[in-house]
Design brief:
The complex is a heterodimer of chains A (184) and B (199).
Chain A lengths: L10 H9 L3 H23 L2 H18 L10 H18 L18 H18 L4 H12 L4 H8 L3 H18 L1 H4 L1
Helix pairs in contact in A: 1-2, 2-3, 2-4, 2-5, 3-4, 6-8, 7-8
Chain B lengths: L7 H5 L5 H17 L25 H18 L15 E9 L7 E7 L7 E8 L9 E8 L2 E9 L5 E8 L8 E7 L8 E4 L1
Antiparallel strand pairs in B: 1-2, 1-8, 2-3, 3-6, 4-5, 4-7, 7-8
Classes of the chains: A mainly alpha (184), B alpha+beta (199).
């Protein structure tokens, strides 16, 4: 049986290897998850400096606790999400809030369950984006978050419009495959 | 900037099976709900080398101060290369934005030219500022992306030597969820960060 290379290994396998002290496996995990963890921390903490601290605490915790990961209890992604969420909550507790006046009316922001669901969705999407090729990720980022039409994306990247459409559809299909559990 | 989500029909075309269309439509909705992933700050691009005994890397601001000191030293060494660089090389402008002066700088103005993406995804910027005064030694101007009036990412620092100055910067890859730009005047030792230009 062929050994699975580190880059192709599942998240759970990488966590298991990190638990055995495999620094290379840990670094692959870091590359897969640094942006999703940072995004989650930014959402929860609203401050880049503290979010950076939370990312470092998350991965320090992953390294320390990886040996306790049990694959039979579930895949690696949700385990990492739980570690990140705990590190971010700890960082939030450490915050020294200035005294503020109580609000006059109820907040219109989403409540904790909605926020948790939104955070989990963003986590999964941002993690899946890391799996796309650079070309596919670029067309998705330009289409969704730069306000460019498909024609403008083509002009911007100096590639034919048909190539933009092909890459965009391929990227969406790949994301659908990666997010199958979420969509199912 | 905050944008309208893209038109799903335009993205995928019309020649999909109903099942595949629905599958991609759900991904589309998740992408819209999730928003853009953040750009990793330089301090987080690689894992800390000290995971056995976790040591916190310097915070972004500390890193920025060191980078600033290095940048200012380099600028001084190059005899004002950054300050007032006119940029003779070609620059393919994709989009331009105007900035206006604020407060005492009401007569100042600026233009941000956004170029085609570089290898690696950074977007080159050419910033032309007009009417900003030269600053005392040690002070500098800094440009930020903003969201809801708060700075979210630094683009670069610069000085000026004449009425019009041109500087080159980069918009980091992945930073998409912003709604404006500002230029501030930074004075080491002072707490304020007065905005001198804004979009």
């Amino acid at each position: 049986m062929r050994a699975v290379s580190t880059n192709e290994a599942s998240d759970g396998e990488l966590i298991r290897r990190a638990g055995d002290g495999d620094r290379g496996a840990f670094e692959v995990l870091y590359r897969r998850y640094a942006r999703p963890v940072f995004g989650l921390a930014l959402r929860r903490l609203g401050d880049r400096g503290r979010a950076e601290d939370a990312v470092q605490e998350t991965f320090a915790s992953v390294w320390r606790a990886a040996h306790s990961y049990r694959p039979e209890r579930g895949p690696g992604g949700p385990w990492l999400y739980a570690v990140a969420r705990n590190a971010i909550i700890d960082r939030g507790r450490a915050r020294t809030e200035p005294a503020v006046e109580p609000p006059d009316e109820a907040s219109r922001e989403a409540g904790p369950p909605e926020r948790a669901e939104a955070s989990w969705t963003a986590w999964r999407i941002h993690r899946a984006l890391e799996e796309l090729s650079s070309n596919e990720r670029t067309v998705i980022e330009l289409a969704y978050w730069s306000g460019l039409s498909q024609s403008e994306v083509a002009q911007y990247l100096d590639i034919p419009l048909g190539t933009v459409k092909t890459r965009t559809r391929a990227a969406l299909a790949r994301l659908a495959d990666l997010l199958e559990e979420e969509l199912g | 900037m905050t944008h309208e989500p893209p038109n799903f029909r335009e993205l995928v075309g019309e020649d999909l099976s109903q099942e595949e269309r629905e599958r991609l439509q759900r991904v589309h909705e998740l992408l819209v709900a999730a928003g853009p992933p953040p750009e990793l700050p330089p301090a987080l691009e690689e894992p800390s080398g000290e995971v056995e005994s976790p040591v916190m890397l310097p915070r972004r601001r500390a890193g920025a101060i060191l980078a600033l000191a290095a940048a200012l030293a380099l600028a001084a060494f190059l005899g004002g290369y950054l300050a007032g660089r006119t940029g003779g090389e070609t620059f393919n402008t994709f989009k331009s934005l105007q900035m206006r002066g604020v407060g005492a700088m009401a007569n100042a103005s600026g233009t941000i030219d956004i170029g085609a993406p570089e290898k690696g995804g950074n977007l080159p910027l050419r910033v032309v500022v007009r009417g900003l005064p030269r600053l005392p030694k040690g002070s500098y101007y800094e440009m930020f992306l903003t969201k809801d009036g708060r700075p979210i990412a630094a683009c670069g620092i610069f000085g000026v030597t004449g009425r019009t100055s041109t500087v080159r910067m980069n918009l980091p890859r992945g930073v998409r969820d912003y709604d404006g730009w500002v230029v501030t005047r930074e004075q080491p030792g002072r707490q304020g960060h007065p905005v001198v230009l804004t979009t």
